[in-house]
Amino acid sequence: MKTSHCTLPGCPPALGPYSLAVQTAAPLLFVSGMTPWDPTTGKVERGTITEQTRLVLENIRRVVEGSGANLAHAVSCRVYLSNLTPETFKEMNTVYAEYFGGDHPPARATVGTQLLGFDVEIECVVALGND
Q: Which of 10, 69, 82, 92 would bridge 119 by S-S if both were Cys, CB 3.0 to 4.6 A apart?
C-alpha cells in the first residue's frame, strides 16, 4: 500500500496523534461510526470517556482486521464527543494515541455533538492493499 503523509510549508503542524492530510492510491474501507458496544454484554456501555473510547476503538479494530486490513493503514478518523471539554478531549486523545499514535497517524477531526445514550463515537477510513 502506498500512502503519503503530508506536511506542507505554511501550514500548521499536527499537534497530536494525527496527520494534516493523507493521500492514498489504494482502495478504501469506510468504517461506520462505532459506539461503545461491548460484545461480552451485547449492550452499549456508558462508562468513563476512557472506557468508552477503548470499546469504540476495539470495535473499529475488529471491523478493520475482519476486512483484512489493520489500523496502521487508517487514513482518516472523525471523533464525536457528546461533551467536548479540554478534559474529555484529553481523556479520549490518550486512548486514541494508543491505537493511532504511530509514525503515520491518520488525519482527524474531533467534533462536539449530541449523542444518544453514549459519549463517544468514531468513524474511520482505512486504505486497503498490499504493503
A: 82
Residue percentage of the chain with pLDDT more than 90: 63
With cell 454484554, the residue in question is: 41
Lowest-pLDDT range, 9-18, 44-53, 61-70, 77-86?
Answer: 9-18
pTM: 0.84
Closest CA to 109 of 22, 51, 29: 22
For the domain covering 19-127, report its CATH number: 3.30.1330.40
Q: Alpha-carbon distance 80 to 42, whole Å?
A: 22
Query: Would you kindly state where each structural domain of the chain is located, as residue ranges?
Result: 19-127
User: Hunting for cell 486504505 — which residue is that?
Assistant: 127
d(CA 95, CA 112): 17
